[in-house]
Each structure stands twice: as structure tokens, then as C-alpha cells.
Amino acid sequence: MNQYFLKKDCKELHAFPHIIEFAVKKNNTIQFGSLAKTAQDFFRVYYVIDGRFDWVIDQQHHIFYPGDLAFVLPGQQFGGERDLLDIGTVAWMHLGLQEFDSSGKLALGKWSRLTDSECRSIGQILVMNNCAALSKMKDAGALFQSIQQEFCNQEIGYASRINQLVEELFILIARQLTQQNTSRRDFPQTFMKLEQTLREKLSHQWTVEEMAALVGLGNTAFSEKVKSYTGFSPLNYLINIRISEAIKLLKRPDVHVTDIALDVGFYSSQHFATTFKKLTGYTPSEFRKKNTTPTE
Amino acid sequence: MDCIITIEIGTGSIRVAAFDLTGELLGSSKGSYPTFHSRPDYSEQDPEQIFITLLYMLKNFLNEKIYPKNHKVVSICFSSAMHSVLAINKNGVPIGNAIVWSDNRAKKEAGDLRASDIGKQLYQMTGTPIHAMSPLNKITWMKNNNRELFEAAHKFLSIKTYIIEQLTGEYVVDYSVASATGLLNIHTLQWEDLALERAGLKKSMLADAVPVFYAPKKLKRQYQTSLGLPENTKLLVGSSDGCMATLGAGVWGDEKATVTLEESGAVRVVGKKVLQDEQQGLFNYVLTEGCYVSGGPTNNAGSAFEWFATQFGDFKKVFDLEDCIDDLLSEASRVPAGSEGLIFLPYLQGERAPIWNANARGSYFGLNIKHEQRHFIRATIEGILFAFYNIGKTLERHRSFKSLSANGTYAAYPLWTQMIADMFNKPVSVKLNSGPDSVACGAFLVSATEMGLFDSLEQAAQKVKLLENFHPNGQHHETYMKLFAIFERLSTKLFDEFEAIAELQQHS
After folding, report:
1. pLDDT higher than threshold 90 for residue A184
2. What is the ipTM metric for this complex?
3. Set of chain A residues whose Cβ sits within 8 Å of the Cβ of B153
4. Which 3-state string (H, E, C) describes B15-31?
């Protein structure tokens, strides 16, 4: 394969302000310092075509073989284990993100047609799985190859095509991540992991779509599965957790009712009070009063 | 029409069911909650989540299935899993989560006590095998290892006691659940001083022990409103899931035993005498005054088979365990009884009765070059059921029985039920598939007896309709007995090796 390299100032990239670098490199020589560990503020993705690569991502050492993919989130360190690029062939892309933070908030930018909630789900999957190495990613290899061809040929519509292929790469990574990290067999265990995530970020306004994405199922299949396993729809299950956590906080005299409502994910104290009373017959403040005085 | 509601507070879920006064099931519903394992030996549940799940379920159930049909709720009867402990402070507020039966943190406390003379005495008095499962040892653990919590604790409750207190304002525990704490003297039905002393408790720190027919104060006004239940709705404290399952399976008297096949399992009999097992291997829980449910529990029933299915089954559809299990069972049915000499020791989670060895581990034994994948499937089920037979054999040293009644999720699979019949060489009956589960049925019988619809629980138990008999196959029985002899020897002979491998696994 020929060497192929596009950098920020190449005119081929003018139509793509978000693509910082795109490369396919066949490396024949070992040069010290050729891949020093650095942290960058953009997203990096590497696909191994040939050879064996020893890389450190976010302080974790991984070995990559052909068909494997590595991605590096903005702010994470990445580089060769010995600060050099090993012998072999590798394709990569550096991509600027419009918005990204460690909580999983992600916006790709105007070029992308992914919806806000799709981006949010992908962002959450990227941060939550805490895993930078994906194996058996031949489909990603095909995407890299198509992107390279579009760049080479620049036929009509190539700009749109390339953006679509980059989007597709994100979707592929997100799907593979959930599949690799959740057993496709053990629903109880998978649900337990999800439930833990929900509890950790209870104030977030979870949608069914986001929850389903974390588990790696479609919305309908996910809702059915949760209903048959727990007896509740996903959103009702979430209300269950919210009210149980609220009860615990109400029984401690030191947290304000409004804060409790928001902390456990109700959008207002009004909404909290109505839901709470419907279920328990008590308003939150009546309930608190009853439970902060000694019994007997 | 008048109806009776039963509420089961199980290990992982609340099950609500409604019956008319003739015992016909009107509907049922389930809602689950998680078990947290913050450390390997820990199993905890959030009491508030259990309570909210119950309210939510019950409210929906009543609004969707009971009120639209103009049914009137006259009685609500509770049942619950055994061995749970929850500490509350002086305001009645839980301190942390509830510790459930499968929690093993108190294994050292249990081991020390079991080996001592006091342990032997306590087993005789309380009927509860000395094991990490029992609140006696769990509270002792708290006293020794979590002083802060122990000092702050005003009372120690079972999950059911907490739920009933939330609904009514009264702290009560029924004799059945109380007799599984290891703290109740089953002969006098009083909290046992020797046990209290061991756990560092005063009597006032436990709920009042009451008969299963006891009706606590009425539902708090707020819950009457939110649930739409009239003021005079009777609540019954009810019993434990184990006792209810036995009652609901129609087992009463000396002739019968029951086999419960859920995630974990048990073999039980009902009688007027306490079974004093010299190996301390059998439990004796109080159903009503002078009436005991005796037997032994196993850790590895459905859970061991689901482990196998999850690891080695063919999942054609993502997460479709049921479909996968159906395929496995049809494969297993093509293998002759005895799996051509392949034996499975099912002790994936250690074992309780009759070997009481937390270090026991699983193993396949007797593998030869001709064994195929399907032999593993059948051997896995046979191994799980050999453990049941092993409990049954221990029970029969004290009381013989002529037939069995099987209940629980896995009793619905004819392959399993037939194997039980063949191993025990006794007929096995099961209930209709469409009928209520045995725990709910038992709770209905308690309510119905309390209302005077039956003269006694004994009469009520005899009313349970059992159908579909499985008759033993003598040839299979012989094959199984030859294998069981090896199974039984392996289970004890491997003691040292179990200990060595458990030690190694703990540090890996």
C-alpha cells in the first residue's frame, strides 16, 4: 500500500475543517521518538492493517494486531510503548470535536447529521466503557479504505460521502464497544451494570434511547426486555430508583427538598411532589416530618 | 366479588397475586429490584427500593386488574425470603442496606460458632443451622466488625418487618421468619437469651414475634388513599417463602415431601416434631405453633443451570435465555439417564445442606473421549438434582415419605421432574402450569384459613389440587443410584481439595 498523508494545511482538507489529519502509513523503519506519548484536545482513531503495535492509551498498555482499532479521547495520552512507531501498516484520523467533556457530553459539529441524542448516547458509550481497544474491526478497515479512495478520487459528492463515512465510523465504534463490553447472553448482569450507571447519574434526564444504547439494544427490544425482567417499563423503573433515593434523602434532615428533587432527577420540585404523593399518599415534607422524629 | 391479595417479598422481586375465595387465581404481577455486591461476599438490597417497588406494583395491579372488575380486597397476606437483616436507628430510619440470605460476610463468625458447644446448643434451641446466612451470625459480624453501625442500631429487622412497619407503624415478625433468624427458640417461641447474648442484643432490639395469622394495625391513612383500599382491609403478617411454598404445594403430614426448584432450592417436610439432626444439617422452621417445616436448602439449582446455559448455550437471539434453555433441554433428553457415566458436582456457589461446605466447588467427573456436548447438559441437570436427592436422603433418616410434590420455575420442565421421580424412586406431582406459584398459593391458604374458609391449615393444604403425576422408572433409578454413590463420595472426599482450590481462588 502506498503512503497516504493529509495534514491540516493540505488543500484536500479545506472542505473538512473538522478533520485535522488523515493518514495511511506503511512504516519500514524504527525511529526513536517517532510516536511520543502526548495528550491532544482532539479525537484520534487508529486502525491496524499490518504488523504489531505496542501502544499506551490513557496509561494502559495494549498490543494491537491487524484488524484491531484504537481510539483516544480528547485529553487522553497516547503513544508508542517505547515512544516509537512499530513496523507495520496503520491508518489513522485525527478529528476535532465541537464539544466533548469527561461526562460524555459530545457534539460532532455542523458537518454531522447525527441527532443531538444520538451524539449524547455515543459520547456516553465512549466514556463509560473505559476501554480504548477494539478487536475484530474489519468493518472499520473498510471504512478507512473508502475514505482514502474518496480523498484520492474526489468524485462528485465526495465531501458528503466522507462525512457520512466518518459518522459511520463513530456509530461502528459505539456499537462494537457495547457489544464487546456487555455479554449478549446474560441480561441480568447487563441490566445490573445499567442500573449502576443510572444511579451514578440520577440527576441526568435519561431517555429510553440513551439507556438502550448503553446496553446495545434497539429501543423496542430494550423496553420489552426490561419490562419482562423487572416488571416495569424503563422509565417507570427509573422513577422507582428516583423515589427510593429521594426517600433516603428525605429521611436525613440536612438536605433541602428542592435539592432532593433535582438531585434524583425530577425536573422540578413540583413534579417531584406530585409523583411522590401519587405513590405514597404523602407530600415530601409530610413524609420528612413523619420520619425525622423518634418512633415509640 | 371478594378477593384475597398475596404479596411475596422475594429475593429479587415482589410478586403480587389475587385470588377469589375459592382459590381461583384472578391475576398476578411481578416487579424486581437489584441485589448489590459491593464486595465478593456481600449481598445487599435497598429497603426503600423494595418498599417503593411494592407500592408501585400493588397500586398498578389493583388499578389495572382488580378495581376495573369490581373485586373487593378483603385480606392481604405477606410472605418473604428468610434470613434478611436491616438495622434501623431510633427514628426508624434504615442504616444502610438490608443484608440478604446469600450474604457470606459472617462465615468466620458462623464457623467459630458451629464448632463450639454453644453452637450445638443453639442449633437444638433455634432449629436454624449455624451458617453465615442466619441473622444471628450477621448481627454478630456487625458487632465485631462494624461497631459504628452496631452502636447506632436501635433495632434489627427483617425486610418484611420493615415493610409492614412502613405500611402500619407496627414492628412485628411472624414465627416462620423469626425462626429462621437463629435467634428464636422454636420450642418456646421466645427470643432465645443465649443467642441474644452471642449477638450482643437486647430483646427490645427485635420485633415482636407473632403467629402467621396475626393482623397488625390497619394500613396508614395515606396508603389507604394512594392504594384505594378501604380502612377495614385486613393485613396478615403471613409466613416465610419456604413455609408458604410447602403449604401451597399441598404437603402436610408424614407421607409427603416437597422439592422447590428456583435459583436455589430445598427439600422439605411438615410435621409436629422437630428433627434433631446430629450433623446440624437440617433446618426446623415454625409454620404455626407446634408445627414445623423441616428440611435442607441447596445453593445451586436454577442458578447453576443458568450458569451453564449462559456460558455454553446457543443464543440465537440476543439475551434470549428461555429459548436457549429449551434447546438445551431437548438435547439433554436425547442422552440416556446417567449421562453415560459423566457426573457433575454442582457446587458453584459452595453448598449448604447436607454437606454445609462454603468451599465446595463445581466439577465434571468421569469424562471420557466419547462424551459429547449433550452429555454435559444432561450431567449438569443430574448433578443439580443429585444434590436434592442428597438432602432427601438425609431427611429420610428422620422421617420417611412416600411421594413428592415439586414446585418452582424448574418444576415446570418435565425432564427435571421425571429425573426427581427416578432418583427418589417415588411419584412426583406438580401443579398445573397455569396455576399460581406455591408461595402465593400458601399465602392464600393462610388468609382463607384465617377467614374461616378452612378449619385449619392442615385441611387447607389438602385442598391443593395436584395434577400430572410423574412415576419413577426402576431402571433409571438403579443407574442413578450407582452414580449417586460416587457423587456422594466425591462430595466429601474432595474436602481438602475444595479447601485448597477455594483458598487459591480467593487470592486470584
Report:
1. no
2. 0.90
3. none
4. EEEEEECCCCEEEEEEE
From CA A9, how far away is CA A44, in angstroms rounded?
A: 18
* Distance of residue B99 Cα from the nearest chain A Cα, in angstroms: 17
B58 min Cα distance to partner chain A (Å): 10
Residue count of chain B? 508
Q: So what's the pLDDT on residue B254? A: 66
Domains recognised in chain A with CATH numbers: 4-181 (2.60.120.10), 185-296 (1.10.10.60)
Cell of B365: 467427573
Query: Is the CB of residue B65 less than 8 Å away from at least one CB of chain A?
Result: no
Q: Measured between CA atoms, how close is B205 to chain A, in angstroms?
A: 13
The tens digit of pLDDT for each residue in B343-397 reads 999 999 999 999 999 899 999 999 999 999 999 999 999 999 999 999 999 999 9
**Residue from B284, B386, B274, B266 nearest B337 by CA:** B386
A230/B313 CB distance under 8 A: no
Is the pLDDT score of A187 beyond 70?
yes
**Residues A295, B29: C-beta atoms closer than 8 Å:** no
- Does an H or E element contain B365, and which? strand B363-365
Whether the link from the prior residue into B354 is cis, omega within 30° of 0, is yes
Summarised one tens digit per residue, pLDDT across range A204-239 is 999 999 999 999 899 999 999 999 999 999 999 999
Among B15, B48, B60, pick the best mutation site for testing chain A contact (most A Cβ within 10 A): B48
Mean pLDDT within A1-20:
86
A248 touches chain B (CB under 8 A): yes
Helices A208-215 and A219-230 pack at an angle, to 10 degrees, of 90
Alpha helices, H only, B240-372? 241-248, 302-312, 321-332
pLDDT higher than 70, residue B55: yes
Q: Which of B12, B254, B275 is nearest to B124 (CA)?
A: B275
**Cα–Cα distance measured from residue A183 to residue B217, given in angstroms and rounded to the nearest whole number:** 47
Q: Is A244 within 8 Å of B49 when comparing Cβ atoms?
A: yes
Sketch out chain B's domains with CATH numbers. 2-243 (3.30.420.40), 302-391+483-506 (3.30.420.40)
